[in-house]
Design a protein that fits this description.
single chain; alpha/beta; four-stranded parallel β-sheet; three-stranded antiparallel β-sheet; 22 helices; binds arginine
Length: about 575
């Protein structure tokens, strides 16, 4: 909606610009990009700062704004004012509301969906934990950013394939098998699940690397034995492969619990092991193309002229490496899904890895390399948590969620003891609080988790926006069928109603920004804008106390529109809708 208005405005302004300088080469898109939302509604709903135009038009911004002001007119415009080199544009609230609200009520949660993804496919590689290692807070980013990006792309019409590229192959399994034979038992693992596996893994790692503080010397024998166990797996040893499959199943069962809490499902779980037999063809291609160099016995692709260290393809003993598998997997996915984009979400520690192998794919002559996108995020730590004790120094995702759910349950028992279905709601709000807090920041920033802040019902938090959603639901429930159907047009009588309409009209634009920048936080912050505008409206404009039935029906319509937009936006960032809190 707002995009349409902006496009119309840009046309009108462009007319003015071209009448001053016919040959300046500006186009409507260029003008549209200059339009801003002023921080304060007193400065208009949309503003054009004329400073950039000053250079192009060789006039002062003040002159330009004054020349353009009378040209900006139309049904949707109330007035335009030239102030200090800005052109401040005020929209007609009534016009906006009547174009907007019926559209939202009709389209419901599909309002605001762009359609530029129609007919295109996106593959998303995210979460991808390393089996039998702890699924910890560092995986929160890849899991929720990845899934949000999937939802966003689906919303824009893309066909999406979500892949959990499990780290299910490698020497860690040799270690685990050895540790299991040394110290483990079937019963123990069946009972304790992944925690027992992680314990075994930690124990064998400590034994192999030694621990100076505790006076434990590195155990070279164990290291050799672990390597041998993995080698047996590579050669197809049935007993070892059966253990390996069992370890994976135990781990996946555990991950599924966390995914379920987040409402996340995957379309494929093909992990690293799947590519074992697909690597030789790519290695061969590299060799044939003369891209492989032998360096101290290892095979590498030299990337010096691109300013990067070499990409490692084969170790001295001929075994493959992480980049080798990624290259084979990308080739396979292109063949399988013919993606337009393949998106990888990982921590920023892997930036170089992706730059390197993307370059190698380009050098191999695969023209689809341009569709490969790496989306990195910053590190996550937890503040003052006794959570970090279970398995050494890492905070497990499930423990973080459990702690949040526990706290929320306490708060809810106090606030609303009669609430039905509390367990489910506490899970939605507890997990939602963590997701919302995490996705409030630009993804590349390092964040320090503060449970108190995340769980507060008053701040800019998940509970606050979920509570706002529940408020809209309960108003509508109370009203029954008394929404817009009762009146034929929306009446706007207060600045709060108008402000709410303006925010709701910006939804599609925000969704586009979020996709363009691979940045779900744009949606998170937008949700806060909507919640804040709605709560101001709710506090200032009495709905059930409105005397004029048209005003009452309009306010209910605004409430319903808000509910749809919030509900839709929640879905985009893995936040569950809570009808009651
Ligand atoms: N398993 C890896 C890790 O935990 C992440 C995999 C990311 N995806 C990829 N295609 N490399 O570090």
């Amino acid at each position: 909606m707002m995009m349409k208005i902006k496009a119309q405005l840009a046309e009108a302004i462009l007319g003015g610009v071209l009448s001053i300088a016919p040959d300046c080469g500006m186009d409507a898109e260029g003008v549209q990009n200059l339009l801003e939302y002023p921080p304060d509604p007193a400065m208009g709903d949309i503003a054009l700062p004329c400073f950039k135009l000053a250079k192009i038009l060789r006039r002062s911004p003040v002159q330009i704004a004054a020349t353009l002001a009378p040209l900006v007119a139309g049904d949707c415009i109330e007035r335009a004012e030239a102030v200090n080199g800005y052109l401040n544009i005020y929209l007609s609230g009534e016009y906006l509301a009547n174009a907007l609200i019926p559209e939202i009520l009709e389209k419901k949660e599909s309002y605001g969906a762009p359609d530029f993804g129609k007919g295109k496919t996106v593959v998303l590689d995210y979460s991808s934990p390393n089996v039998a290692k702890p699924f910890h807070i560092g995986h929160l980013g890849t899991t929720v950013i990845g899934h949000s990006l999937k939802r966003l792309h689906e919303f824009a019409g893309y066909k999406c394939v979500g892949i959990n590229y499990l780290g299910d192959w490698g020497t860690q399994f040799g270690k685990l098998i050895l540790a299991y034979r040394l110290w483990g038992s079937k019963e123990q693992i069946e009972e304790g699940g992944i925690d027992e596996l992680v314990k075994l893994y930690v124990k064998i790692n400590n034994a192999i690397s030694g621990n100076e503080e505790q006076g434990i010397a590195p155990n070279k024998e164990y290291a050799d034995q672990a390597r041998a166990e993995f080698h047996k797996m590579e050669l197809g040893d049935e007993e070892n492969l059966a253990l390996w499959k069992w370890f994976i199943k135990i781990s996946l069962d555990e991950y599924e619990k966390t995914y379920k809490q987040l409402g996340i499902t995957f379309d494929s779980y093909l992990g690293e092991s799947f590519y074992t037999d697909k690597m030789p063809a790519q290695v061969e291609k590299l060799r044939e193309m003369g891209l492989l160099k032998i360096d101290d016995g290892a095979s590498i692709v030299d990337l010096e002229q691109y300013g990067m260290p070499p990409c490692l393809i084969l170790k001295r003993d001929g075994s493959t490496l992480y980049p080798t598998r990624d290259i084979a997997a990308a080739v396979y996915r292109k063949g399988e899904y013919n993606f337009d984009k393949c998106i990888y979400v990982t921590s920023n520690q892997q930036i170089l890895h992706f730059q390197q192998w993307f370059k190698v794919v380009e050098l191999m002559g695969y023209d689809w390399y341009e569709g490969l996108v790496h989306v990195p995020y910053g590190t996550v730590s937890v503040n003052g948590a006794k959570l970090a004790t279970r398995t050494g120094n890492v905070v497990l995702l499930k423990d973080l969620f459990a702690a949040a759910i526990e706290k929320v349950t306490e708060i809810m028992e106090e606030k609303n003891p009669a609430l039905k279905g509390r367990e489910d709601i506490a899970e939605a709000v507890g997990v939602g609080a963590i997701v919302f807090y995490y996705l409030s920041n630009n993804r590349i920033k390092d964040i320090n988790f503060n449970m108190e802040d995340a769980l507060s019902f008053d701040g800019n938090t998940g509970p606050y926006v979920q509570y706002t959603y529940a408020r809209a639901c309960s108003i509508l429930e109370k009203a029954g069928d008394e929404t817009l159907k009762a009146v034929d047009s929306v009446t706007i009588t207060t600045p709060q109603e108008r402000a709410l309409c303006i925010v709701l009209s910006q939804y599609e634009e925000k969704v586009r920004m979020a996709i363009r920048d691979y940045e779900p936080s744009v949606v998170t912050r937008y949700i806060l804008d909507v919640a804040t505008a709605f709560n101001r409206f709710y506090h200032e404009c009495s709905i059930f106390g409105a005397e004029d039935p048209a005003v009452k029906a309009s306010r209910l319509a605004l409430t319903e529109a808000t509910k749809h937009v919030l509900g839709s936006a929640f879905g985009l960032i893995c936040l569950r809708k809570t009808e009651k809190i």
